[in-house]
Amino acid sequence: MTPRQSTALTMPRRFLPVVAPFLLVILVSSCDDGTTGPGSGVVDNTDFEASASFRFTVPADARSLLVVEGVTGSIKIAGVAESDTVVIIGCRRVKSESVADAEAHLGDLQVLVTSSGTRVDVTTQQPGDTHGRQYIVDYEIIIPASWETSAANVSGNVDVQSVAQDVTVRCTTGLVTVSDCTGDVEVDLTTGDIRLDGIHGSLDVEAVTGNVVAENYLPAGGVCEISLVTGAVTLEIPSTTSATFSAKLVTGLITLIGVTLDGASISPTRVTGTLGSGNGRIDLEAITGAITVTGF
Question: If you average pLDDT over residues 16-34, what whole number do you get?
Fold first, then answer.
């Protein structure tokens, strides 16, 4: 496997842009919507901070997809059964060498919420050149549990929970957590850790450096693929899991605990075999590290 070199965040292929007029365009507004402050040189430090909270409420109507594009900060998304609205709350923060400078540039950092067709988009907008300032947006979003979710972030943690449809997360640096989801889960992370708990759909995980811990109730015909360059993969599966099984390393150790493979071929760095009737597929791969699979 070749490590991914690009850290540019792009929309997952499954979510192609919808070309239609915006039905809803909302810009953050608050009493601190000042213009860019004086001076454009690089600041000396980021010891001081200015902040402003925000809140949006969007009717769910016939929509079914949330797409979040962050840059720096945390993204938390929770599905709620029977919810008929999308609630987006959070905080915009600018860190600079003085409170006055941070406040002057707080207006440069905005949150754009748009709604079109079946989707709601939440996007962080900030200057391309920060001049040494830190622009941070922390999100907490509540959606109907039946929605699909796509979240992208450059730096910061992403947490998605209680979503019944597919979840896609793309992050450069941070901790990615997905829990109690019944759809398929796709995670693409460059540096950081991934924790997946109570996943009842297929898994597609790619990471460069870090650790992956996953609890996967693989459905019939489902696929669990986890690829890592450097780090540890820990997979927990029910003893009733049915799938062909493959785990391989270049350098490291593979450990199976409470897992019975039919037709097993086992070496320290490669294990293959069949779980149950083989109605599914599990492929685990790392270059350097460890792979541990536990049946429960």
Answer: 36
Under a CB-based contact definition with an 8 Å cutoff, are residues 93 and 121 in contact?
no
- Residue recorded with tokens 């997809």: 65
139 and 196 share a domain?
A: no
- How many domains are there within the chain? 2
Rounded to an integer, what distance in angstroms lies between the CA atom of residue 108 and that of residue 286? 42
Distance (Å, whole) CA 136 – CA 121:
18
The span from the CA of 144 to the CA of 281, in Å, is: 30
Using pLDDT thresholds of 50, 70 and 90, give the confidence band for residue 41. Answer: confident
Mean pLDDT, the chain, integer: 89
Which CA distances in Å does 293 have to 81, 82, 236, 281? 33, 36, 6, 14
Q: Tokens for 88, please give them.
A: 């987006």
pLDDT, tens digit, 9 for 90 and up, residues 58-67: 999 999 999 9
Classified as helix, coil or strand, 4 is coil
Tokens of 47: 């010891």
Structure tokens at 95: 């860190």
Task: Identify whether residues 195 and 77 lie together within a single domain.
Answer: no
Domain that holds residue 141: 21-152
For residue 108, tell me if it sits in a domain: yes
List the structure tokens of 176.
Answer: 């990615």
What was the pLDDT predicted at 13?
A: 37
